[in-house]
Amino acid sequence: MATAEETGGAEAQPWAEVTPDAARRLLMAAVEAFAERGYHATTTRDIAGRAGMSPAALYIHYKTKEELLHRISRIGHEKALEILRTAARREGTATERLADAVSSFVRWHAGGRTVARVVQYELDSLGPDARAEIIALRRKVDAEVRGIIEDGVATGEFAVPDVRGTTLAVLSLCIDVARWFSLDGPRTPDEVGALYADLVLRMVGAGK
Amino acid sequence: MATAEETGGAEAQPWAEVTPDAARRLLMAAVEAFAERGYHATTTRDIAGRAGMSPAALYIHYKTKEELLHRISRIGHEKALEILRTAARREGTATERLADAVSSFVRWHAGGRTVARVVQYELDSLGPDARAEIIALRRKVDAEVRGIIEDGVATGEFAVPDVRGTTLAVLSLCIDVARWFSLDGPRTPDEVGALYADLVLRMVGAGK
DNA sequence: GGCCAGGCTAAGCGCTCGCTCACCTTCGGC
DNA sequence: GCCGAAGGTGAGCGAGCGCTTAGCCTGGCC
Fold it and tell me: Highest taxon of the source (chains A, B) (predicted)?
């Protein structure tokens, strides 16, 4: 939240806030496993094995398997929200801020594809309370993007008939990157970010 | 394939081709269950129960639980491909055909949200052979949309710097509808289809 | 050196999973 | 009226699941 991390943000060590070292290793192993096979198809034995520990060790640091998913999901959503807030609140025109928001949001989904997959697609595996908390975070994410688009409409930079629908479509486009993006594919995260920023500016009628 | 079904296509009885009546009921039950909870979290007892049968009955009509997913996935992809082909091969300008393709493809993802979810998000749960077959179908889907965009570029209707990337984005946008769309939400499938067709035309620089 | 708290493991509990098997019903053809 | 195939059931198998428990190390403090 208040960290001065400015290294570009890829996902070098994004789990520094998870404090006992073994707990962090378990959490990173869970991210990998959930992203590869999905939450329900992942066993606690698999997670512990990837972290180089016995199955029982998991339960010293986490109460249940679901708590792991919950923690991953919350940290991931907070990171996503931080990225969008940074872009939304910088100086510049609405056009510049929207392009920045989309390209950095897409870069995060492409580069941190494993985390993003878990965060975006395993929401339904959470219990009601945890899910409600995550949904609240998502509403904040939506509000950031909608804010930029509303600004652009107000200044006349954008021509958007349906602000809410367009916001939804922009976010949807970015999020789905986590589904199809592969590091083996022909594009780098930066390239996809630039392409998508251009496409989104066309969608809102900027630079017309 | 050669059926003369012209009823509008929503998804009134889309499983008519699944021949023993009990097999169709099981398949429809599986679609519901997979869409709600995901493939791995769904039990064969749950599927059989929804179809009003005992767990053992499933194995009279299907060899494994995975065969059910495979069948659903293939039929769903064939239907999606048929929708796009119909739009791509009708008469009209590239602009009209692209708008038609996007709006009908989106309508299918929104209206048949349960099927679309299974089809689009449970691909990784298939074995290698079945997955390869489905991926081949997806390439055909991609080719249809790319064809329309290439036509538009050739006639000068569209201004698209990166045809492959834009094709990917258009399909991605449509497919992700299955993730977020809800019949309880404020929009009907028709409305989302119209909104998205407009956004996509902006993305390709049509009507500029 | 004695002690104890924290981190970890081997073993395994109770349960549910996908799937099978022996048997039962229904029904058209003769 | 009898028969065999097709479609269904109840009971239960071996396996693997999430999670627990009893006990073993290790290291800091007096």
Answer: Bacteria
Nearest CA in chain A to B120: A179
- d(C-alpha A77, C-alpha A123), whole Å: 11
Q: pTM score > 0.85 for this model?
A: yes
At a CB cut-off of 8 Å and minimum separation 6, what does B61 contact? B20, B22, B23, B26
pLDDT tens digits for A48-98? 999 999 999 999 999 999 999 999 999 999 999 999 999 999 999 999 999
pLDDT in tens, A116-164: 999 999 999 999 999 999 999 999 999 999 999 999 999 999 999 999 9
From B38, B173, B202, residue closest to A172, measured CB to CB: B173
Q: How far apart are CA A112 and CA A109, in angstroms?
A: 5
C chain positions with any atom within 7 Å of a protein CB? 7-12, 16-22
Q: Structural domains in chain A?
A: 4-61 (1.10.10.60), 73-203 (1.10.357.10)
Closest C-alpha to B117, from B41, B192, B179, B187: B179
Residue type, A3: T
Rounded CA separation B153/B164 (Å)? 12
Instruction: Tell me the CA–C1' distance in angstroms for A47 and D27.
Output: 28
